[in-house]
Amino acid sequence: MIAAYQARCQARVDAALETLFTPPREDLQRLYQAMRYSVVNGGKRVRPLLAYAACEALGGDPARADGAACAVELIHAYSLVHDDLPAMDDDALRRGQPTTHIAFDEACAILAGDGLQALAFEVLADARLNPQDAGTRLAMVSALARAAGSAGMVGGQAIDLEAVGRRIDQAALETMHRHKTGALIEASVRLGALASGHADAARLEALARYAGAVGLAFQVQDDILDVESDTATLGKTQGKDQAHDKPTYPALLGLDPAKAYALALRDQALAALEGFGDGAEPLRDLARYIVERRN
What we know:
Helix content is 70%, strand content 1%. It has 15 helices and two strands. The two termini are 18 Å apart. The protein is an all-alpha fold. Keywords: Isoprene biosynthesis, Magnesium, Metal-binding, Transferase.
């Protein structure tokens, strides 16, 4: 069931994303090519899926979540472009293709990432692309800014870089990943819920618990795959975390306990949705998929 839903949502967000990369000037062709390359070059689209599923869980039309879905994927893509740079994780492969700084050059990759980040907020602020009332658009911009910035994803990346070669406990590891990975996943769910037009405080709180568990489960499973999978399956270099002496859940807990923890987080996410009806089934399927995926 999740495969059909995933294909439908991927097609929807990909079509919306394709409309965003027409350069306004001829001399910006290469920059826009790099931006497009960084976004449309594959990807599971987990964050847009979560935005659509949260919107539908509250009875919203998925068309109302197109702007949210595009915005979270643009932020995610920008973060990958910058993470892959030589000054950060220094990786040459992403989604089975050369990373943006390899396919273009380092300066162009930095600017492409900058452009994608700004474009995400432009999408959310534009009523043509994000057809909500002005107050809801402002709330969505604010939520994404917090999740993407120094209090969220960027802060988590800074903590990650500081942790290289150090031994940290599970609480510190979770703090890092709730920022680095979890914050944008939580924002994806929140933006989708706000886009529905039917969000209330109680259901937003339940969805926040769901997203917090799913966001952490996603990172735990990523760490497991870095140990168990291979480069061809992952589409990125396998074993990079161990090679860079980064703290991970398998290294801290052991591989089998890390797998058990991912399953426990999945169950926490499912429990958070107990008050939701059949409309939340895609969210439930996504929680299961996140800990069962192999790439």
